[in-house]
Write a structure and sequence with these properties.
By secondary structure, this protein is of the alpha/beta class. The protein is built from eleven helices and 17 strands. A six-stranded antiparallel sheet has the order 4-11-12-13-10-16, covered by helices on one side. A five-stranded parallel sheet has the order 5-2-1-9-17. Strands 3-15-14 form a three-stranded mixed sheet, covered by helices on one side. The two termini are 25 Å apart.
Length: 518
Amino acid sequence: MAEFDLTDDSVVVVIGSGAGGGTLSNELAQRGIKVVCLEAGKRLKPNDIVNDEAVMSERLTWFDRRKGTGIANAQFPVWTCKTVGGTTMHWTASCPRMQAHEFRAKSTYGMIDNTNLVDWPLEPLEIAPYYERAEYKMGVTGTHGIERLPGNNNYKVLEAGARALGYQQIDTNNVAINSRPRDGRPSCLQLGFCTSGCVVQAKWSTLYTEIRSAEATKYFELRPESMAVRINHTGQGRVNSVDYRDASGQIHTQKARLVCVAGNAVETTRLLLNSHSPEFPNGLANSSDQVGRNYMRHFALPIIGLMPGPVNMHRGTHQAGIIKDERHHDPNRGFSGGFLFLTVPFTPEIIGKIVLRDKWGDELAQIMSRYDHMAAMLVHGEDLPQATNRITLHPSEKDENGLPVPLIHYQDHPNTQRMKNYARDKGVAIYRALGAHQVFAPEDVFPATHNMGVARIGRNPADSVCNPWGQTHDVANLFISDGSLLPTVGCENPTLTIVALILRQADYIDQLLKKGVL
Ligand SMILES: Cc1cc2nc3c(=O)[nH]c(=O)nc-3n(C[C@H](O)[C@H](O)[C@H](O)COP(=O)(O)OP(=O)(O)OC[C@H]3O[C@@H](n4cnc5c(N)ncnc54)[C@H](O)[C@@H]3O)c2cc1C
Ligand code: SF4
């Protein structure tokens, strides 16, 4: 790994090492562009990663204080990671592409009250080659001749129930998990600890892939436990350095030629807003007042069936199967956009603490004694952008870095409520069709795992933060490089789309640097 001086102003500073930042760092380093990656979290060694959900939650999760309003989890509204590899350590690697109509949400759905709907400034055809590259890079099953993973019992139940209802688009999903040894990593052993980081490294995480490849070049330096606290700029409106806090609390300033922010939606917003100055009084790159607005999160409805026979849903990959029949747009269902059913094996702890938190005592004990008979899924649906769903800074509360705590305000749009009601009934029917003794379908109680949309791309600087490549309209050498870029989100898990956008961004940055424009 290279080492660059704090005064080296020829480096690109990438903030965050997750799906967006890790990928961008590697792509630039492979092109011979010098990169310093600042990552707030620690770097775990292989032995630090163990098959234990509780231990790994402590090691991976971002627990710095955040506050939610309007949503179920006021104290823990958002679930992301603080570690090298970012949330690709926790993620379960489901990688469906967005559908063509979802890139044209405004044209397809029409005007919907109280939304900030737009069409993407990209045609589906423009992103298609980057989807191809992303799938190949990540080794996504079901693409490029990579065979799909086998279905576990949780999948078999999902599939049988879905077929009983007449659904047909059911398979073991496109996942960024090796089904054969690939990229120097082994194939999946079906151990069932995907959210614990995957000890064998069969699951794509930037810690195991992008960071490692970048370190093999002479152009990349990773600085773990380095929390960016401010992006500085010159009088000419160009960013020129980043202040960051190291593990001991000392502040350093790294000079930069270009800065790319990839902190995941909440932290990306917080950093931009905290970097306000007399020239940018509302926050960096925020002349449009759009930074932090249009915050979107796919709803995640949990549904658990107590089946007549043992399922042992915890065995095998978390993302073991998907049903895609409801993901199209059909206003006759009473809402715009669509949704997906995906398997998930909730742990006993998550069931007790979150999913069935209204149950207690004997009733809960009775239910939990039948854990081996449970089948479970999550239902994810499209969320629509609303200006009022917004991340801001707390006016008085600060965290241990002395930064204002992020405030996350989110409320379901009526379209989402109608979709949830419809989707919940369908999910329950899947398990009922197989004779489930009981089906639990509580409210959407999870902290958001898919966080998107707060610095969206667009052509009009008045209603977007970035141009179609993620370069901010206000500051030419400042890029946003994570899920914040998505102007609408479809119903598909977002990371494949994030990686595709970042591959496109890396090409663009490379061209601009070669032309000497930046
Ligand atoms: C349990 C779980 C399951 C998921 N499953 C799926 C799935 O199956 N499919 C899917 O598509 N998506 C899934 N996701 C979502 C997926 O992980 C995210 O979409 C993706 O990781 C987002 O990438 P990112 O680059 O925006 O942010 P991240 O991957 O979160 O990376 C951001 C990084 O920036 C660092 N950082 C933040 N602020 C600073 C700062 N100021 N200074 C320095 N570093 C900073 C963070 O520590 C972090 O490492 C899941 C998420 C969770 C929690
Ligand atoms: S099931 Fe596969 S992807 Fe998940 S932790 Fe085990 S080996 Fe890794």
